[in-house]
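User: Show me an example of a complex going from sequences to structure tokens.

Assistant: Sure. Here are the input components:
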Amino acid sequence: MSTHTGMAAKRKAPDRRMESATKKRRSPTRVNPALYLFPLPAVAVIAFFLVMPTLQAFQYAVTDWNGFSAAFDYVGVDNFIRAFTKDSLFTNALTNNLKFVLLVVIAQTAFSLVLALLLTKNSRGGILLRALFFFPTILSSVSVAFIWKFIYDPNFGLANSVLGATGLQGLQGSYLGDSNQALYWVAVTQVWFHAGQMMVVYIAGLQSIPRELYEAAEMDGANKWQQFKSITWPFVAPATSIVVAYTTVQSFKAFDLILGIAGNPPKSSLDILSTRIYSTFANSEFGYAAAQSIIFMAMIALVTWIQRRLLRLTPKGE
Amino acid sequence: MSQISRRQAMAVLGALGLGATAAACAGPGGSTTPGGSTGPVAPATGDITGKVSFAHWRGEDKAVFDELIKRFVAKNNGVEVAQDISTSNDYNAQGLQKVRGAAIGDAFATFRGAQFKNFGEAGIYTELKNSKAVGNYQKGLLTAGQSGDSQLGLPYQVVFPMPMANTDLFDKAGAELAPKDWNAFLNMCEKLAASGVTPISWPGGDVGNGGQLFNCMIANNAPVDDMCSQIEQGKLKCTDDWFIKMLNQYKDLAPFLQPNATGTAVEPAQNLFSQGKAAMLATGSYHIAAVRNLGAKFPIELVFPNTSTEGKAKYEGAYNATFILGVNSASKHQAAAAAWIDFLSEPENAAYYANQTAQHVSVKDVEYTNADLKRLSPWLDKRTALAARFQFQNLDVRNAVEASATAVISGTSPEQAAEAAQKIVDERL
């Protein structure tokens, strides 16, 4: 026993030394400095293309710089005050944008979920239809804008032609030319453009729900609506979270679609925040446009956060 | 020495971050204004060599410029000219940022008005007062390229932002082409409508093209010639009687436009005209080539919507001198760029450009052989008003003021439309 203990003690002493040396070498807080060189290119790219422009936006936002002069004045928060109190074009664009986001988020989320529910099964027809609904997503937004510009044209457009041919002349309209309706028609285009993409996200979510849950629910006598409410909806919550957040950001930034469909500059009925910022830049008001950009960023963050809270897609504290 | 701690690494990255912040905070306007403080100077002289970038927005003229470039290069060995073309809307919005620094645009064109002014303020133009080209232009048309004592640019094109007319349809309807006042103009529209065609095709869904009609409507209504500058400065108001009267005249026009005119883009409007479904296209002579390409075979004239009463018109038309050519003060190939502008300004080359593109030019002694240009040439000698909408320096103000006309055609009352426009003007005073 004692011999055994003595040998063990002898073995332990060098082990400890080795362990300590290893610890020294593999310290979690000490690494070979060469390793820090590897992320440097990425850090440089991020610093140059993301950090610096963002910081510059904050700096420009407190100036009245016109974009080309050497001279400029610091105006403090005047640009931000102006945006909310003295610029009806900006508040109009903000209102339009919030309306557009609301419309598109509700319609696109609902529509893509319905499509996904109908096309979850991997049948041949289902896969074909999925491809068909996904197809608009691979088009460029400018192409989509031009296709729908043609559809909405009041003189030669498809919409009025079909209505005319089916004896529904009374429903023919000006579409984008009607300032009360224009935003709704662009929302239809936006939903057509992206619903297929969101459908794919939902299908992935739906296919991960265990079949046994539905079988058990059926045995308990739950009808389809009860199954949807108690199984499908809670299980697709993560997918809904992605769809809602993505659609929100997409709707805030529908810049190319609006410019393609409504021209540059768009009429005030179709002016959203991104097009307004562009017009302000084009109007040689860089300082003010930078302030509008910061408000735009804050607005996206705020709306996304509110949506997630309202839909209870994010538990408190997460 | 061979190892650093995570904390040290963070410190290094933090220092880099601070460096980036400091660089970001270098202040706007750091790299600026070539020639800004001393005023514009003449383009450098020297060998006509190098690759010249010619920035403009006339995509439809590309082939014509290509041919002119071929001729220029044949005359000047060792020079190349490449066209950098943007769409007109993009060029209007981003032209200055693109051309500034001369990465593109050794030679360039600008729109008259806000863009020309901004280019001038940014010091992008060189002084062309003593250039070889300037002597080739009609003196009266050079003013659009002047700033103070300087001749910064050379307005190359003369366009008539007035409705184009299908004279065959006018003849068929027995409508007169030159109405002397507003009532005569409305009678003319009634006759055209009675003959079964749409009197006026108007692209109300396109802000840029739809706004051209404004030049005609305001010319004889405004109390002064610099009415748009005065609106922008707050000296005149959209709620003034003369402006409301003009909006009421827009209201008079509404029944004579194609249905749902405020939603019509420019291409369908051109189609209505070129297919003979509309008697007039309310854009301007710059669309002649486009409607010819769409198959219009009929003779084209210009009609001035004369808003005056009882023949007391100050103006009998509207024109614009635009496509203001300049040489970039930051260009490394100024001699070659200036030579290219000189070349374009020679009567022979200007004539080629004009006849091929169906656009009048400001260059003297140009012989127009294009049938449309020949027919419309008398307009060069008429009492025409310089297009007023380009007096606006602030594009938001311009769009708001013009939008009041669109609103009236949509059914808004002239008073309400005028108030809405004036609110936006007031916010920008």
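The lines above are the inputs; the final block is the predicted structure for all two components together. Chain B touches chain A through 63 residues (CB under 8 Å).
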